[in-house]
Each structure stands twice: as structure tokens, then as C-alpha cells.
Amino acid sequence: MTRHDAPDRGSHAVEVRGLVKHFGDTRAVDGIDLDVREGTVMGVLGPNGAGKTTLVRILSTLLRPDAGSATVAGHDVLRQPRQLRRTIGLTGQYASVDEKLSGWENLYMIGRLLDLPRAAARRRADEMLERFSLTEAAKRPAGKYSGGMRRRLDLAASMIGRPRVLFLDEPTTGLDPRTRNEVWDEVQRIVADGNTVLLTTQYMEEAERLASELTVVDRGRIIAEGRVPELKARVGGRTLRIRPGDPGELPAMAEVLAQSGAAAVPDGSGAGVAAPVIDRESGTVTMPLADDKQLTAAVGLLGERGFALADISTQLPSLDEVFLALTGQKATHADDEAQHGGDTDELKEAAA
Amino acid sequence: MSTATSTGTKSPAPGPAPSVQPSGRGEGRIGLRANLRHIGALVRRNALQIKQDPESMMDALLMPIVFTLLFVYVFGGAIGGGGGAHRDQYTNYLMPGMMAMMGLNIAMAVGTGIQEDFHKGVMDRFRSMPIARSSVLTAKVVVEIGRMLVAIAVLLTVGFLVGLDIHGRWLGLLAAVGLTTVFATSLLWIFMLLGLTVRTAQAVQGVSFLVLMPLQFASSIFVPPKTMPGWLKSFTDVNPLTNVADAARGLMLGHGEVGDPVLWTLVWSAGLTVLTAPLAIAKFRRKV
Question: Architecture of domain A9-232 in CATH?
Fold first, then answer.
């Protein structure tokens, strides 16, 4: 495993051991171990319903775990919740600001709740509005903000108390690409200030852009972890992408590619080789490549069988493909689930 | 961040935590002064919400007017007797008890309000912050008491306009308002508990309505229970609303018994608060 089992507990801003949480029969979090080093950004990547939100809610003391332990900045989630809350900032999936209050009033209120004197709370509110480019909207009710502005206000609210550890639960879910970039820029600035951030996301691009280390979760379990390049390396160097002249040949071609993959492994078992994946929308089939030999074998075999190729390319794997290879689950499947509210169910259950 | 705030300039990552003794191996408890400050900030939030959404004050402003006019002019003449000549007598009888009715109806609304608040993300923020979780509820109580006082003020204004006469017993009036508010505040906790227990706002409303209608009418608020059948009268006698209405009537008008109803009102208020406030707070703490 790539885990660093550092004996020095102090160097970890977040430490999670054997964490379990069920909702009825569902094990939302099913034995998770996690370390986040001080000053780094840990991305927790997974489809909806993977348990990401539950994990964050436990770490921010909104939920009690059923088993296992977790500390944030050295404070135990069960035994020292009050001290813990003093060290964290939380930006949830749903904007956690008061919609009826103006942006400024929201930030001022949070400053006061964090025991800033009136004048200091006022200054801090101004300062954060300025920093998150919301000064012009300061007096408007937050409910009238655009999605991106609201998320930025949410981030500003989380930063008022200068938290040592910041939890960002799917900070850009539901935002359009341009707004997403806005929020990413803000998060990157927060990260650049040396904060420790635990970020959950179902967007590979987001994890790749913001996180230095990744934990990939699925159905409440960790299925992979490590630095971003390490994870990429685990699924092979490159991906082969082929577009046949006739989309009807996709399945047959995938089969041949699978054979070539199995053949490329010395023992012929195909172990460790990711299966080819058909994407009907783009009319392509892709397969991670273990090495050059596999590429040669694949192209050779396709030629032998007389397939007509419209396009062939190799590329470095995206995190999308990393996830795909690790879970054996098609990425679009996760998206389907997203639309049917995997995490919303999780929240509803949490509310029960 | 150049305009450094008065806290958090000493070390790179200081939590603003002046209210907690850093040395204490205690649980990072929140001191009384900090708690009051948090409640203040949350009261301000609720007040700003009302400012932003003035319709939410509608019930407190209109209900007393509508009910007073309805009862005084629909029933007043008939109940007062003398072919409407003694309407003022009924107005005097009615108004003290109506204060309790207003308190009850305002308290009822809090159950639905708390449900709505719950489905908002801002609750998650409050609960992940270093504040006593009870302060969110306490702030709500403070604001609701304010709403009750507004409703009672409107009620009394209308009452005086339609003929309420307390013969200069202003201190008695003040005491009656105070006593009614104390009682209504204890009701707040019940509805808060109900709001935190029942799943939807509509359900809260449904249940509340079914309990409150009989409770209000089977009391001495609208008519003296003398003419009621024995079984009903034994209920009105123990109905706390009867005590509150009688106490207010005694204090404001100077006739009828005062000591007993005042005492019983206080006993009921204390009992209800001691019973339901901790339950509501515990429920709120656990609710996630």
C-alpha cells in the first residue's frame, strides 16, 4: 500500500481509523482509514453514494460514527467535539448560508459566532467579501446570488475563523463549467495559503487540479489511494483509444482487445489488465495499456482480424479512466446515480 | 488579509477563541458571556429575516385584530346581553384571555418554522461551529417572545379602541402581559419539541390544530365556564388556559380571584418548561 503510516501523529491534520457508519442496512462508511498530512490537499474521489458526504459529516461532528475513530487537528470527533469545531471550516454540498440575510450579514454573523469583537467581525466580513470578489453584492440577500456567488460566499463563511482544516464537500457540484473555474480559483488560493483541505468530489478533473493526494472510495470503502501520479501509474501508462469505421463493430473489437490484453501478460491470465470499455456516444473503445508490447499486440491482432479503423490514438490516462479501471464501473454509471440522488438519499437517511 | 483583526495575529493558524481558556483541559466549554453573544448574533439573524420577509409578521399583526373584531362584534352583543347594550362588558371579559390565545397561536407557528429552518444548509454550519447547540433554539425563543409581545400590543390597542376599560390598572396590565408571556414561552418549548419530532411542517400544523381548538374553547377565555356541563367544567378547571385567562382578568380588571390562578399559571409554566425544554434541546442536539 502507499499509505504512510507515520508514527508522528502530530503531522497529520486528519486521522481516521476503521471508521464505520451505517444507515439502516446500508454501510455508508465501511471501515475507512485515512491520513491527511498538515498543509496538503486530500481529494476523496468517488461516485455519488460512495460515502464521501457521510465521511465529511462525521469529521465535522455532524454525525457520530458507529465504530472506529477520527481526529481532526488532534481532537477526537467524539470526545472533543467542541475543540474540534474551533479548528475546522465546512462548506457543504448545499450552500450553507442564510438565504434571507445579505452576504455581509452572513459573514458578520459568523464572525460574531466565532467570538470576534463587533469591530473585528465587521472588518473581517468586509475583508472576506473583498477577497472573494463579492463586495458589490455585499448588501443583497444571499438567496438572490448566482450559484457561483453563493458558493464563494459559502467558502468565505468557512474561512472567517481561519480554520486549520477545511472540509469542502463537493464544492462545485451543480455549477456550470465557468462558475466551477471561479470556485476552483478560490480553492486554489486557499490551498496556496498553506491550509489543510479535505475535498470530496466526483469530478476527476477537480481532484486532479486541486488535490495532491487522492483517496478513491466506492460503496464506503477505499479502493485506492496515493499521490496523483502514483495512482495514474497503477493503471498503466497510457490508454489506447480506437474508433472503428463501423460503430457496429465496437463489441467485436472490444473482445479482440481483451484477448490482446490477456496475451500481453506473461502468464496469459489477464490479471491486472483493465478490460476495454466501449463508449457508444463517441463511438470509441478504450483500454489502458500496461506496456508497449500490449499496444503492438493489440494493433497487430486488430489488423489480423481485418477491422477497419477510423482513428487510433494513445493518451495518458485521465483520472476518469483511473477510477474506471479501479472500480470496474463505468463512469457514466456513477453519473446516472448522481441524477437519481445517491447522496441525497444519504442525506435523507442522515436526517432520519 | 493585511487589515489584521484583533484576534488571530500571533500565530499562523490561530482559531479566534478568546472565550475558551486554552489551558483548560476542560471540554472547551462555552462560557456564559460567549453564549449570550452567540444568542445575540442569532437573534439578530432572526430579526433580519423578519425584516427581509415582513409577511412573516402578518400573523402577529393581523390575528389579534381579526379575532378581537370577530369575537367582540359577533358574540359580544349576544353574550353581554341587553340586546347588545352590554357589549363592553364582554369586551372586558374577553381581552385578558385573548392575550393567552395570541401567545398560544404564535407559539404554534414556531413548530413549523423550526422544520423549515432544518432543511437549510445553514443549520449544518451552525452545528459545525464552536457554539452551544442550544443557542440556536434559545435565539428562536427570544425572537418568538418578541413576536408575542408585538401581537399582544396590537391586541391591546385594538381592545382599547373597541371599548376595553381597565380603570387605570396599568401595573395590573403589565403584570398580566408578563404572566401571559411567561406561560406562552413555556408553550414555545412544547411546539419546538413537536416541530423537531414530527416530520413535516404540515403534520405539525395538523396535530397542533386538533389539540389547540378544544383547548382554547374549553377554557374560560371566551365565556365563563359556569354554564358548561359538569364533565366539561371539570376539564376547563384544570385547563391551564383557564388559569392564565383568569389570572390576567384578575390583574387587569381587579375583580375575581387573583392569587390562585396566578400561582397555577406559574406552576404550569415552570412544569412545562422543565419538562419540554431539555427534551427539545436534546432532540435538537441529536438531530442531524
Answer: 3-Layer(aba) Sandwich (3.40)
